[in-house]
Amino acid sequence: MDKSIIKLFGRWDTDIKVNDKGLERYLNVTPFMIPRSAGRNQKKQFHKSKMNIVERLVNHLSIPGHWGKKHKISSGDLPAAHENTLKVVEMAFGIIEKKLNKNPVEVFVRAIENAAIHEETMSYQMGGIIARKAVITSPQRRIDKALRYICQGAYQKAYGKKIRIHEALANEIINAYNNSNESVAIREKERIEREAASSR
């Protein structure tokens, strides 16, 4: 089958070029109609690299992780079913397309490239003190952290507000695409990289 006719949700082309060479091997934009692999690669090394990046977004929306002690705010009311999360992503992409008049998959890929951290700090014990050192972040972790902060930022903006989760997700992706400080993911990236710069 010609891959050019396979469109995400039957609507959007996924033939996107990844500009960040460090992420190129790990940011999978293989054409999928419904981004769901059902864990077929989970027993393979670096299996996440074989998953479509939109599927990884869907999985992160289901389990966004803790944000300090604000787990309720960072996770919101998690969708009960995978199909519900897929619908949230499809609706968010529809909003992005309407606002920017661009392919939302490409906007999402650029948002990840902008939000992916380059270095962070690690702690280690040196004698009786805890020292911190700047380290280069691996490509897989760069994508994971970007996805995590995008999803947590969306839940944070939707929790207890009138804005719906798909609208918050669309706004978060658009802000990350524009490299705006309105994006939680961009703010977190800058904070982590500032800490790393001071620990060199």
Mean pLDDT across residues: 83
Q: Helical percent range?
A: 40-55%
At CATH level 3, the topology is: Ribosomal Protein S7
Tally the beta strands. Answer: 2
Strand content: 5-15%
**SSE string, helices as H and strands as E:** HHHHEEHHH
What structural category arises from helix and sheet content? mainly alpha
CATH architecture: Orthogonal Bundle
- The CATH homology group name: Ribosomal protein S7/S5
Overall, the morphology is globular
Q: How far apart are the first and last residues' alpha carbons, in Å?
A: 51 Å
Radius of gyration: 17 Å
Number of domains: 1
Q: What is the strand arrangement across the widest sheet?
A: 1-2
Poorly predicted runs? none
Number of helices: 7
Task: Write a brief caption for the model.
The protein has 200 residues and is mainly α. It contains seven helices and two strands.
Written account of the structure:
The chain is mainly α and 200 residues long. It has one domain (3-119, 140-192): Ribosomal protein S7/S5 (Ribosomal Protein S7), CATH 1.10.455.10. It is 47% helix and 8% strand. The chain has seven helices and two strands. The protein has helices at residues 53-62, 71-75, 82-100, 104-115, 139-158, 165-177, 184-198, and strands at 119-126, 129-136. Strands 1-2 form a two-stranded antiparallel ribbon. β1 and β2 form a beta hairpin. The longest helix has 20 residues, at 139-158. It starts with 52 loop residues before the first helix and ends with a helix.
Please give a handful of descriptors for the protein shown.
200 residues; mainly alpha; Ribosomal Protein S7; two-stranded antiparallel sheet; 7 helices; globular
